[in-house]
């Protein structure tokens, strides 16, 4: 497996851990029989964790498809790997800024992550112009 493919797995784990951590931390108040109970998410940190989790679910498909497309179309693997690592780092920072209630920085990181995805997606189209 490539580093970029491991980053796909890491991105998946990140959005799962984002919500699992608040559920685990509040295990006495979390009712697994009603996992989507809105009253559990009234606490501000839990609400932000839910938002970060949902955004992770939204961001994941484009990242996974972009990486797999770039690899399938034989874009430079080293560049795919580097951008995938950068995406994962940006997503980790995004989760922390979401949990820390830093909306401006969070939006900047989201935009940066989206730009990285666009770059990965279009690597096959520009691979002829990239240095070997």
UniProtKB/TrEMBL annotation:
<dbReference type="InterPro" id="IPR001129">
    <property type="entry name" value="Membr-assoc_MAPEG"/>
</dbReference>
<dbReference type="Pfam" id="PF01124">
    <property type="entry name" value="MAPEG"/>
</dbReference>
<keyword id="KW-0812">Transmembrane</keyword>
<feature type="transmembrane region" description="Helical">
    <location>
        <begin position="107"/>
        <end position="126"/>
    </location>
</feature>
<dbReference type="GO" id="GO:0016020">
    <property type="term" value="C:membrane"/>
</dbReference>
<dbReference type="InterPro" id="IPR023352">
    <property type="entry name" value="MAPEG-like_dom_sf"/>
</dbReference>
<keyword id="KW-1133">Transmembrane helix</keyword>
<protein>
    <recommendedName>
        <fullName>MAPEG family protein</fullName>
    </recommendedName>
</protein>
<keyword id="KW-0472">Membrane</keyword>
<feature type="transmembrane region" description="Helical">
    <location>
        <begin position="83"/>
        <end position="101"/>
    </location>
</feature>
């Amino acid at each position: 497996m490539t580093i970029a493919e491991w980053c796909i797995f890491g991105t998946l784990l990140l959005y799962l851990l984002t919500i699992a951590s608040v559920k685990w931390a509040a295990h006495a108040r979390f009712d697994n029989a009603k996992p989507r109970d809105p009253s559990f998410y009234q606490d501000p940190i839990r609400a932000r964790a839910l938002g970060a989790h949902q955004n992770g679910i939204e961001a994941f498909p484009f990242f996974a498809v972009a990486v797999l497309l770039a690899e399938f179309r034989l874009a430079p693997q080293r560049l795919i790997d580097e951008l995938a690592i950068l995406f994962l780092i940006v997503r980790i920072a995004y989760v922390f800024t979401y949990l820390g209630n830093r909306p401006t920085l969070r939006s900047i990181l989201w935009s940066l992550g989206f730009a990285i995805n666009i770059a990965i997606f279009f690597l096959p189209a520009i691979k002829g112009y990239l240095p070997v």
